Each structure stands twice: as structure tokens, then as C-alpha cells.
Amino acid sequence: xxxxxxxxxxxxxxxxxxxxxxxxxxxxxxxxxxxxxxxxxxxxxxxxxxxxxxxxxxxxxxxxxxxxxxxxxxxxxxxxxxxxxxxxxxxxxxxxxxxxxxxxxxxxxxxxxxxxxxxxxxxxxxxxxxxxxxxxxxxxxxxxxxxxxxxxxxxxxxxxxxxxxxxxxxxxxxxxxxxxxxxxxxxxxxxxxxxxxxxxxxxxxxxxxxxxxxxxxxxxxxxxxxxxxxxxxxxxxxxxxxxxxxxxxxxxxxxxxxxxxxxxxxxxxxxxxxxxxxxxxxxxxxxxxxxxxxxxxxxxxxxxxxxxxxxxxxxxxxxxxxxxxxxxxxxxxxxxxxxxxxxxxxxxxxxxxxxxxxxxxxxxxxxxxxxxxxxxxxxxxxxxxxxxxxxxxxxxxxxxxxxxxxxxxxxxxxxxxxxxxx
Length: 422
Hints:
Residues 42-77 are annotated as: Disordered. With 422 residues, the protein is of the alpha/beta class. The chain has helices at residues 21-36, 113-126, 143-146, 152-160, 170-182, 195-211, 246-264, 270-282, 312-324, 333-355, 363-377, 382-394, 401-404, 415-421; strands at 63-73, 81-91, 101-104, 107-108, 134-139, 165-168.
């Protein structure tokens, strides 16, 4: 597994949009091909019976419409929850300086694909955006968005009368995969409803206060008490000596990748940094407090924060903390086993895949690598790995003919492989 680029987590300044500039330009080229010949791409999503073939050349102005369903709480005494549709679009002109523009977040009552599509078209009409210029949709993989008959994307194609690119949210895909991985392992990641998770702040804060007079709080707990991933006894740091098991191979690759990210300090969000730090320390990275040469920040166990049921990344950070601190927190035998297995899945499978999911041109390669990793992981956790594989097979959005050609713009794919794809 090759060394990945150091700027993998934090794109350039111009790409603090929904995707990097160069990636959106690539999408525009691919979408133009799909639009000219919508029935020749071989994709199962298109319905030729309802999508009319276009003979005229479409306007050159291109916009990528993004819709992402959000839950909004209506500020009323009843605290009734309503569905909201967040609609943005990105013009092609001056991509280096223009951010995706927020058009609105209309309330939807039923949340059906037809209603979502109608709201999108109404928003476009208000801003005089020609619907023919829409070339792509970015969405969470919910049935109301992706339904082949009544989904919002299908309805948009019918209204626009040409095919569009279906760009599923890769963060959402990663969270779906890992939730299927851990559901067979007694998933204790259900926010505040999980007994283990709810107990962490209760014992963590008193211990931190007790240790404060003797040492700075940033050095709590003592790195020597951390319970980390156990490397094989005959392991050496050279990647040419082996062969090693699939877990050792993955651990070696992701430990070096995490170290590179921490050294360059390229993080847009602190929770991304915390997840990367947790993975690195769990896999045996240098934990000397502010003295390590490899990681300038050194080891730092942060105070447990809020954990949201909507995002498994927060749960992943908690699980890694629980495993690292399991020597000073007595857990039941079953709980300890579950936490240990889930922490390994997070560090070896889910964490790196989630953190790399922002790069659209690398999406086909990352999805394929993740798929093969799960295949190999069957020898470690058969049930959990097979559940994850089933999830991946249902969400191969970037391995279909329309999207797999993104790999032609991936610098990590060899020219020989690109020629085979082309």
C-alpha cells in the first residue's frame, strides 16, 4: 500500500468548497459526456423511457447543484421536528474565488423524492437558474434521494430531460459501512444511550483533576498505562520482511500515514486531528509529551466531548479512548472484548477511509482498496467484515462506468492502469 500525499486531509485554500476546483472541473467534463449520450454509459440508474434524448448542444454555463437533507428543529413550544432541504449551487465561472452559493433551506413536510425535487426546482426558479445547466447532484444516500423510481435524483433527471452525475456523499458512505461492520459486535455507539459511552466522562474528569497537581493535565493519563494495539513479536519496521497478517499490514500502512499527517499538521477540523492522533497513538506511535520528534504536538488525551448519533466519527474517537484507557477503567469482560474489536476496526479500516474520502478523483481507488481490505479482514472478523462488504456492494457509486473514469485524474494510479481503464 503506497504512501499517500501529505496534503490528503487539508486541500488547498481554493478547495474549501464542496470539492477541490480541479475535481469539479473533472466532474464537468464527465457530466458533459453523460449529457450528450445519456443512454450509452451503461449505468443502471437511467430510465430511457422518461429521459428524452437531446440533440441540441446545452449552454456552456455549468452549475453543480448539491442537495443535502438536514433535520431542523422548529422553534416552538411543541419542539416539533421538521425536514429541511439545503440547496446550494456552484457556478463554473471563477471557481478559484467563488464559493458554493447557499440558495435556501425550504421546509419539506413529507420528505418524499417528489417533494424534494419540487422544492429544488422552485428554488432554481426563484434565482432564475436554468435547470438545463445542472450537471450533477451531491446527496446523502437515503431512499428519498436515490430511489430508482421516485427518488429526488431520478425526478430531477426527468425534469431536466438529460442525465446528471450522481455524486453520493462519501462521508455518509463511510459511516454506513462502519455501522454495518460494528452492528454484529454489540455496537455501543448509540450516543448517550450507550452505557459505556455515558460512563466515560464520569470517571475521566475526577482522575484528571486528581492527577493535575502532580503533572500538567495535558500529560494525563501516563502514556505508559495506555493499552495499544499489540504488534506481533517477530515484527520489524522494514516493510520488506514478512509476510505479515492483514492486520499487521494495515496497521503498518496507516501508522505511517497518520504520522505523516501529524508531522505536516494539515487539518481543517480539530476532530479530524483528534481521530488521526488517536489512531496513531493506538497503533504504537510516539507518545512522549511534547518531546517526540515525529509528532511536534506530542501525546494529548483530550477531555471527552459530546458524541452525536448522527456521525460515527465522534463515536470512533470515544472507542479509541476507551481502549487506550481500558487499564484504568474496569469494564466487564464482554464490554472489553467489544471495545477492543471495534477500536481495531476503526483504526485499521474506517478511520483512514473516512479521512481520505474528501478527494473525489481518488474515490474509485479508495473504494476498491477498502473493498479488498474488507475481503482480507474476513479472516479476522468474518461476520463484521461480511456485513461491511454487503454495505459496500450497495454503495459502489464511484465504481460505475460514469464515475470510475475519475481515476484517470488520480496521480496515485499508474499510467499502465489508466490505459486499461481508458
